[in-house]
């Protein structure tokens, strides 16, 4: 299968190299990723703007744009052949709960929908590290065909993994309800955006609940919503 990988952490992120190496064992893999970190850009795109890119090899490109733009570039002649699937990641940090609305990693997987191909977003749930990118990439490669079979037409997958060396199980779940709240500090005259759960308890069958149990969370999302019940 012809795979285009991208991310929102940037071309220098270790996660994208681990992903490229693991998936290349079975597939024809190309990379187009932002030259700089574009975290939190969601599905932003450049309109009426020139996008400059740098060719590192025949299969590896960096571009001065958003992750969703990188997906589009894969269909605009930058590659010899159009991709058959988009894989975005491996992100440093979780992309569950309301993050699916704001994440550039998830935004790139969502962009695959507009080109009528499957998309997968992959994230490691740790903001500190060290990151087990290689183990996460190998797990995806091992279950790649199975995950594709889980994804119905006009949907994409959002996968979150615990940042551990030994990953053995996954479960299909739904999104955890949360949102960002603005916290004001009148003394320092500043506002801070923080994630805030909208429910008191985290259900075990939600993305966050599954990861907290030590398993890989697989959520099936539509292009216009944040969660899907998994029944198809």
Could you please describe the fold and organization of this structure?
The protein has helices spanning 14-23, 67-73, 99-102, 104-114, 133-142, 144-150, 207-212, and strands spanning 2-6, 28-34, 53-57, 60-63, 85-92, 119-124, 155-161, 170-173, 178-185, 190-197, 216-222. With 232 residues, the protein is an alpha/beta fold. The protein has one domain: Survival protein SurE-like phosphatase/nucleotidase (Stationary-phase Survival Protein Sure Homolog, Chain: A). Helix 1 packs parallel to helix 5 (133-142) and helix 2 packs parallel to helix 4 (104-114). The protein starts with a strand and ends in a 10-residue tail after the last strand.
Could you tell me the mean pLDDT?
87
**CATH topology, what is it called?**
Stationary-phase Survival Protein Sure Homolog, Chain: A
Q: Shape, please?
A: globular
Instruction: Quote the beta fraction.
Output: 25-35%
Low-pLDDT ranges? 226-232
CA radius of gyration is: 17 Å
> What's the count of strands?
11
| CATH class category | Alpha Beta
- Tell me what the CATH architecture is: 3-Layer(aba) Sandwich
What are the salient characteristics of this protein?
single chain, alpha/beta, Stationary-phase Survival Protein Sure Homolog, Chain: A, nine-stranded mixed beta sheet, two-stranded antiparallel sheet, 7 helices, 11 strands, globular, disordered C terminus
Question: Layout of SSEs?
Answer:
Elements: E1 2-6, H1 14-23, E2 28-34, E3 53-57, E4 60-63, H2 67-73, E5 85-92, H3 99-102, H4 104-114, E6 119-124, H5 133-142, H6 144-150, E7 155-161, E8 170-173, E9 178-185, E10 190-197, H7 207-212, E11 216-222
């Amino acid at each position: 299968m012809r795979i285009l990988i991208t991310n929102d952490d940037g071309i220098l992120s270790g996660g994208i190299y681990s992903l490229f190496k693991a998936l290349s064992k079975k597939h024809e893999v190309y990379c187009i990723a932002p030259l700089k970190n574009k975290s939190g850009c969601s599905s932003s795109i450049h309109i009426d703007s020139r996008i400059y890119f740098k060719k590192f090899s025949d299969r590896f490109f960096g571009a001065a744009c958003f992750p969703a733009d990188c997906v589009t570039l894969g269909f605009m002649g930058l590659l010899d052949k159009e991709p058959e699937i988009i894989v975005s990641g491996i992100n440093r940090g979780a992309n569950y709960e309301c993050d699916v609305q704001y994440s550039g990693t998830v935004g790139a997987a969502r962009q695959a929908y507009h080109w009528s191909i499957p998309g997968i977003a992959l994230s490691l749930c740790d903001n500190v590290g060290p990151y087990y990118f290689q183990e996460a990439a190998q797990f995806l490669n091992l279950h790649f065909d199975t995950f594709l079979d889980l994804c119905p037409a006009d949907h994409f997958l959002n996968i979150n993994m615990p940042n551990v060396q030994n990953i053995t199980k996954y479960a299909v779940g739904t999104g955890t309800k949360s949102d960002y709240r603005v916290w004001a500090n009148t003394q320092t005259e500043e506002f801070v955006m923080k994630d805030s759960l909208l429910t008191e308890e985290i259900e075990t069958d939600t993305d966050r609940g599954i990861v907290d149990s030590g398993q890989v969370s697989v959520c099936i999302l539509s292009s216009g919503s944040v969660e899907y019940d998994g029944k198809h």
